[in-house]
Amino acid sequence: MQSRFTLFLAVLMLLIASSSSLAQEQPATPAAASTQHAAPAAKPPLTPAEIEEQQQKAIAAYEAGEHLKFVQATMRLLNARPYEPQYMIGMVVGSALVGRPKTAYSYMHKMQEQGLSHDFNQTADTESVRNTEVYDYLNSLMVKAGEPNGIGKTAAELPESKWYPEAMAWDNSAGRFLVGTLEGGTIYAVTPDGKVSEILSSNSKNGLRAIYGLEVDSERRRLWVSSTASPAFGKLAEGELGKTALLEFDLDSLELLNRFEPPADQVPHFFGSVGITPEGDVFVLDRLVPMVFIKPAAANTMSLFLTNYQLTGLRDLAVTDDGKLLYLADANLGIMVVNLDNNSASMLAGPESLNLGGISGIDLARGRLYLLQNGITPQRLMSLDLDVSGANVIKVVPLASGLELYDKPAFGRVQGEDVYYFAGSNLLGEHADKFRPLVLRTPVEPPEDAQTPEERLFNETHMQGKEPSQNPD
């Protein structure tokens, strides 16, 4: 059997390619862009170039059999990207190779606490730390964590599988979801009971291209759409590739009212998710560079609101109902919380059981933050209880994970007693040739009979007449 650790090396190579691409996309002088809000001063994390350097060192050391150097390089990577499961896996493997079983168990326990799944029996590199109660118990729990758990029912299926949904918003005034697609730049109305109808599509007047963000302002009767001329749209006119804009539509007539483009700053931009405050200020994030733009309610122009090159890549955003906090989901570093009252920012903190890696969508409701994670194993939907400040997680609750329909789930919205979200992420999934544009529905509260991996493992061993191993704690 091929070593499981080969996968670790392959993922490292993919991360290297991603980091190199990001480094090329960023301008050479970040200070050239004005910053109105920034994260608190702290020791800067590794730059993309430094991440690539450490990854290369880790790979070279592993292949050369220099296990201590491999551990040292992997530890630096994990310190810089604390939510990255592959670096935790590397620390377990490296610790086993240098004869440090307690350290290996410590990282296994950390992964298990965070609900991550991995089978360390799939690589011979862990043989030195196997055959103990601690190892067998932790590894069994992590294998168990990868099994399907929770509820994810199909709420709707869009009529054309080739149209690739990417954005979702709730239109409270009409009691419907609005779903935007990449190919064709089409917007559908989707009712909670699954009825689907097309309400708007790209034409020469509205200039819609691939849709990456949607938000409804019911009070002001506005529909905000972020659109980019990307290859996923289909046929593009000559010279328009890469053009991005925030579009303002009349919610009732669906007539285009305004088009807002990023400033001509010689930096490529790619508008994504959109958020609105109660006052009508509109935020839109940039997927290409770590920037957020704002279209104030009282202004008819767009400007740069935030840039922070310690972030690695913004994936989604959410605004609290009172308009005081803005949450920005980063692809690698977790979630930045921006206080819009006092112009401060910090990274969302929480207990040891919190892992904020691989986020593919966030939403806020009832003092909770709901997030989808498709960049870790298992792919999952989580609910996070927040403290009164909104900057700290006090409880982590898994709602659904590893479901059969999951193929990189993304971009959810909470409505009523359920979270609605896409089952897959378009061309990025493992089954792109069989992609189904499904909207799934998962209750905001786990079922009363929901069981943790520990409970499921205990029940299975008990039913087999076996005594479960002791918890290493």
Low-confidence stretches: 1-42, 468-473
CATH architecture call of the largest domain: 6 Propeller
Number of discrete domains: 2
Shape, per Cα inertia axes: globular
Number of helices: 7
Described by strand count, sense and barrel closure, the largest sheet is: 5 strands, antiparallel
CATH homology-level superfamily of the largest domain: TolB, C-terminal domain
Percent helix, as a range, is: 10-25%
Radius of gyration based on Cα positions: 23 Å
Structural class: alpha+beta
Largest beta sheet: strand ordering: 1-22-21-20-19
Compute the separation of the termini in Å: 33 Å
Report the portion of residues in β strands: 25-35%
- CATH topology assignment of the largest domain: Neuraminidase
Number of strands: 25
Mean pLDDT: 87
Under the CATH scheme, which class of the largest domain? Mainly Beta
How are the secondary structure elements laid out?
Elements: H1 5-25, H2 48-64, H3 67-80, H4 85-97, H5 101-113, H6 133-145, E1 149-150, E2 153-157, E3 165-171, E4 176-181, E5 187-190, E6 196-200, E7 210-217, E8 222-228, E9 244-250, E10 256-260, E11 271-276, E12 282-286, E13 291-295, E14 303-307, E15 314-319, E16 325-330, E17 334-339, E18 344-347, E19 359-365, E20 368-373, E21 380-386, E22 393-401, E23 410-415, E24 418-422, E25 438-443, H7 453-463
Helix pairs in contact: 1-2, 1-4, 2-3, 3-4, 4-5, 5-6, 6-7
Provide an overview of this structure.
By secondary structure, this protein is an alpha+beta fold. The protein has two domains: 5-149, no CATH class; 152-446, TolB, C-terminal domain (Neuraminidase, 6 Propeller), CATH 2.120.10.30. The chain has helices spanning 5-25, 48-64, 67-80, 85-97, 101-113, 133-145, 453-463; strands spanning 149-150, 153-157, 165-171, 176-181, 187-190, 196-200, 210-217, 222-228, 244-250, 256-260, 271-276, 282-286, 291-295, 303-307, 314-319, 325-330, 334-339, 344-347, 359-365, 368-373, 380-386, 393-401, 410-415, 418-422, 438-443. The strands form six sheets. It has a five-stranded antiparallel sheet, with no helix packed on it. A four-stranded antiparallel sheet has the order 2-25-24-23, with no helix packed on it. A four-stranded antiparallel sheet has the order 3-4-5-6, with no helix packed on it. Strand 23 (410-415) and strand 24 (418-422) form a beta hairpin. Helix 1 packs antiparallel against helix 2 and helix 6 packs across helix 7. The radius of gyration is 23 Å and the shape is globular.
